Amino acid sequence: MKHKIVVEPPGQNARTIIDTMSRNCYNSTFVYPLVIEDGEGCYIKDVDGNVYLDFTSNIGSSPLGYKHPDVMDVLKEYSNTGVHKIAGQDFYCREHAELAERLLSIVPKGFKAFLINSGAEAVENAIKIAYRRMGALPGVSCINAFHGRTLGALTFTFSKPVQKSNFPELPVKRIKFCSSDDDPEIDAVENLLKENKVAFIITEIVQGEGGYNVASKRFIKMLREYTSKYGVPLIIDEVQSGMGRTGRWWAFEHYGVEPDIMAVAKALQVGATLYRRELDPGQQGVLSSTWGGGSRIDLAVGAKIIDVIRRDNLLSNAERIGGIILKALRDMADDSNGKVVDVRGIGLMIGVEFISKEVRDSFIINAFKHGLLLLPAGIKVIRVIPPLIIREDEVQEGVELMYEVLKVI
Ligand SMILES: Cc1ncc(COP(=O)(O)O)c(C=O)c1O
C-alpha cells in the first residue's frame, strides 16, 4: 500500500460528517478534518477514499497498525459472542484472567494487576492505591506532565492551562521534569521529600502530551533513590510510552529503575494499574472500575497484541526503525533552514520540535493534505509514533513526504 490523495481533504463525505458533529457535539481536540473509514497495515483510509501513511498510531493505541491478521482473527472469533460487555468487576471472564497473566509476565516481578478502561482511570487507581497506603497527603507531579483528564488525574496533569481552568484540584506539589543531567533543579526532590510528607510522586519517562521531552537518566534515578529512602510510592505513567513503543516493554527499563505502581493503557486497548503486591489495598471493594474493566473483545485484543509484539520481535523493530527515523529526521532538521530546531526520542516515540507553534501547525496541516498523518505535542512539537510494525520503505515514504511539506510551509 502507499499514501494516495484522490480528493483534497476534507472531501464531501468528510464534510457531511464533520458538519453533523459540529452541530451536535462538543468541539473537543480535533486537529484536522480527517474522518476515518478503514485501515490496513500502517495506512488509514478516509471516507472519501484518500489513503494516509499513519505516523500517529492513534496516539499509540494501534501498535499493530490496522487489519492485522491476528487481531482480525480475534474479532472474527467474537462476532458470535453475545455477552461481550460484562460487569467485569462483578463477574469473572477468561479474557480478564489471560490479559492479567500476560501483563504480569512483562512487568517487574511481584506485581499485581487491576484492569480498567482507560489511561486516566489507570492513573486514578494508581493514586488511590498510594493514598490508601500513605493517607490523604499531597501528591507530586512534574511541570508539563500529562496524566489524563478525569478530575483526580487532571490535578497532576500540567501540560496546558486550557485543560484545567476553573477546575478544582487535589493537594499537589510540582517539580521540574529534568531532561538534562546538568539541570540545576535535578535534586529538588531531595529537599521536597525531606521537608514534606507526600503520598506519591508520579511521572512519565518521556513526557507525551507535554512535548515529547525525554527524562534525564540522573533525574529518574534520583526520583527512585529518594522515594525509596523516604518510603514514598513512585508511580510511573507508561500510558503513552509503554507496551514496546520505546523498544522495551516499558520506557523505565532504559533507566535501570522499577516503579512501585505503574499506569498502562492505549496500546493495551484497556487500562491497567499494576502495583507491588505489598501495596495491595487488601480489603475488597476499595477499588472498582468505571464500567466493567474493559469489554471482553478489548481484553482479548490486548492479550493478542502482547503475543504478537513478542512473537514478531517488535521491540527490536521499534529500536532499529526508531534509530533510522531519528537519523533521517535529524538530517531533515539540518536541511530545514532552521524550521526544525530539535529531534529527540527513544525507539518509535520521537518528537520533532519546530521554531514556532505556527510553523508546527502549518507542517501538520500540510502533511495531512499530502497524505501523512501527524499529531502535535506540547507547544511546537510533532510526535512521530508509527505502528510498531512499520518497515523501512514506509519510513522512507514518510520522510520524503515531510521533505515535500517543508518546501510549502
Ligand atoms: C502519559 C499519559 N497518561 C495518561 C493519559 C490518559 O489516557 P486516556 O486518554 O486513556 O484517559 C494519557 C493520554 O494521552 C497519557 O499520554
Features:
single chain, 409 residues, alpha/beta, Aspartate Aminotransferase, domain 1, Aspartate Aminotransferase, domain 2, seven-stranded mixed beta sheet, four-stranded mixed beta sheet, 17 strands, binds pyridoxal-5'-phosphate
Your description of this structure?
With 409 residues, the chain is of the alpha/beta class. The chain folds into two domains: 12-54 and 350-408, Aspartate Aminotransferase, domain 1; 74-311, Aspartate Aminotransferase, domain 2. 36% of the residues lie in helices and 17% in strands. The protein has helices at residues 12-24, 57-60, 69-77, 94-104, 119-134, 151-156, 188-195, 217-230, 296-311, 314-334, 357-370, 392-408, and strands at 36-40, 43-46, 51-54, 111-116, 139-142, 172-175, 200-203, 206-207, 213-214, 234-237, 261-264, 271-276, 340-346, 349-354, 372-373, 375-377, 381-384. It has a seven-stranded mixed beta sheet with strand order 4-12-11-10-7-5-6, sandwiched between helices. Helix 4 (94-104) packs parallel to helix 9 (296-311) and helix 7 (188-195) packs parallel to helix 8. The radius of gyration is 21 Å and the shape is globular. The two termini are 27 Å apart. Pyridoxal-5'-phosphate binds next to helix 5.
